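Protocol step 4 of 6: record predicted structures for both targets in the notebook before any analysis. Target 1:
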Amino acid sequence: MPARRRRPPAAARRLPLLDEHAIAATATADGRRSAVVPVHYQDEILRCMVLPSPDRDAPAVGLRRLTPVEALVTITSHPRILGWSDPAVIEQQFNLTAELVRRVPMWEAQVPWGPPFPPDLAAELLAAIRRELTAPTQAR
């Protein structure tokens, strides 16, 4: 019996839409498509950071604004590379992260546990974030 090929997830099947925006998509070694999306850093502003926190008892999305200290501890406790030991690199990353959390607000997002995830979870999370970003400063 020949091996059955797995169907890619829905997000991967939508890649042809990238062709409309002149984004190059290439085939990967395992037959999927890969795309590199151009980023224009000078035109983009990081408005906020959101750390999802799955919760088995959460009926809906909830947001909690982290203090800069909480945000710094949270980000540094999720390193990209575990076990990095070069003191100069660690110091640089710490200083850059401290500056980032000073400038950019961070929220912890309580989200219902899945799968299955509620079909409107992403829309609900984005709406909650937009409400927070547009709320008067003193309400935060």
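Target 2:
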Amino acid sequence: MALATGPRKNMFMGHSGAVMASAGWSKSISARFIRMSLSGTGFVALLLLAWTGATRAAECPVPLAQLVLVKGSVELVRQGGLRPVVAEANAGLCTGDTVIVHMRSQAALLLSNATVVRLDQGTTVTLSSSSGERAALLNVVSGAIYVISRTPRPFRVRTPFINANVEGTEFLVEA
């Protein structure tokens, strides 16, 4: 605990940053010190969130897909994340990540097997890794996707209505 002296009475500052002022200090000065302490706490929380984001990126060294096109309002929910964040072009997508394309918007994914997947407005897609030789599993929750695949390396598409195994073709899926 530090002791500071000044023209007014003694002021004590505890290790938590809270300020206790003896008689003679106004409430506004005490409130200002408390606000400064809380803003410091907010800064530490922000650094902690940035650090966990960097840790999250390290968990997925080889992404399943890359978000190559973002037009309009597109959001991304990372696996284990609670809130969507604004999606940015060239973002790597890992297992469990969800892409949400809002109305009057579009997005495109480039899968690890060189397949292009265009997401129409109102589409929600979650990526999963698939066992065996399959590179990716797309779970289309809602909306429509247009797939352009020129490679023989397969992947799977799942909707509430159908399951498809894809090996090099072009098609449209609406959920």
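Step 5 preliminary note on target 2. The radius of gyration is 25 Å. The longest helix spans residues 27-59.
Proceed to step 6 after PI sign-off.
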